[in-house]
């Protein structure tokens, strides 16, 4: 896959260790507030969920201590979900033009305001982050069926920082913007989230990783832990269409 930055080291680092920073609106004491969290794992969702569904999702936002850069946008593209079942990898989600999510959300209160997002077609979206008030939560336009006997999964996205005003100052290197890849298992394909009806849980949430001016592939994964497993996945990814 041209342009990917996946290596065994990067995959391992996306799930091991503390977040590279806490970010606005995420409470460090939460199970995923300070480090990656497997959540349900591959099959720990309720047995009553007989027709589960899956979607990857992501968050980008400034460090809790703020980001001094003023002329930046976060470009986000290629949201992907890859499953391994019966020994075979397959791509379940591949979103280029339908990235969904229009709000800055404070996850500690669920308060949200409309985000400033530019649509870039096959190159995804470009988000103007705000220093306070929340992070940007996004996901593909559709869920996909999920099976309890999944052997591994990887969710991923490509991110980088670009100038907001092309003719303005270049202060990208002053930015402290972080992103995380994650996924949720839902009770069903059409179950809808609300604050009182528990219909989904994360599986997994990765580490918050800093975003810079070069493209970076950020992942979260389950069922992979050895270099052999990472290299098998990377070799398979290399043969998939961009």
What would your notes on this structure say?
The chain is mainly beta and 242 residues long. The protein is 7% helix and 38% strand. It is built from 2 helices and 14 strands. The strands form 2 sheets. Strands 1, 4, 5, 8, 9, 11, 12 and 13 form an 8-stranded antiparallel beta sheet that branches. A hairpin with a 2-residue loop joins strand 2 and strand 3 (88-95). It is globular and about 50 Å long.
Estimate the strand proportion: 35-45%
What would the principal axes of the Cα set say about the shape?
A: globular
- Number of separate strands: 14
How many DSSP helices?
A: 2
Q: State the separation between the terminal residues, measured CA to CA.
A: 6 Å
How many structurally independent domains? 1
Helix/strand-derived category reads mainly beta
**What can be said about the biggest beta sheet?**
8 strands, antiparallel
Radius of gyration, Cα only, in angstroms? 17 Å
Unreliable spans are: none
State the order of secondary-structure elements, H for helix, E for strand. HEEEEEEEEEEEEEEH
Overall helicity: under 10%
- Overall pLDDT: 92
Protein topology:
Layout: H1 8-13, E1 53-62, E2 72-85, E3 88-95, E4 103-106, E5 111-114, E6 116-119, E7 125-128, E8 135-138, E9 144-145, E10 152-163, E11 177-186, E12 200-205, E13 209-210, E14 216-222, H2 227-238
Antiparallel strand pairs: 1-8, 1-9, 1-11, 2-3, 2-7, 2-10, 4-5, 4-8, 6-7, 10-14, 11-12, 11-13
């Amino acid at each position: 896959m041209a342009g990917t930055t996946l290596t065994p080291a990067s995959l391992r680092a996306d799930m091991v260790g503390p977040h590279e920073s806490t970010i606005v609106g995420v409470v460090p004491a939460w199970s995923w507030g300070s480090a990656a969290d497997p959540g349900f794992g591959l099959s720990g969702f309720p047995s009553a969920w007989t027709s589960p569904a899956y979607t990857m999702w992501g968050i980008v936002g400034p460090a809790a201590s703020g980001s001094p850069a003023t002329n930046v946008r976060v470009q986000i593209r290629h949201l992907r979900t890859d499953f391994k079942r019966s020994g075979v990898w397959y791509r379940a989600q591949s979103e280029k033009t339908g990235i969904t999510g229009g709000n800055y959300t404070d996850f500690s209160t669920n308060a949200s305001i409309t985000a400033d997002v530019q649509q870039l077609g096959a190159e995804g979206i470009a988000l103007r982050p705000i220093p306070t008030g929340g992070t940007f939560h996004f996901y593909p336009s559709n869920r996909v069926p999920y099976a309890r006997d999944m052997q591994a999964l990887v969710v991923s996205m490509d991110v980088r920082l670009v100038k907001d005003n092309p003719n303005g100052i270049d202060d990208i290197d002053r930015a402290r913007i972080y992103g995380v890849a994650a996924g949720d298992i839902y009770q069903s394909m059409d179950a809808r989230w609300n604050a009182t009806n528990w219909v989904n849980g994360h599986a997994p949430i990765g580490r918050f990783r800093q975003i810079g001016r070069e493209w970076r592939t950020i992942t979260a994964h389950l069922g992979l832990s050895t270099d052999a497993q990472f290299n098998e996945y990377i070799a398979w990814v290399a043969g998939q269409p961009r």
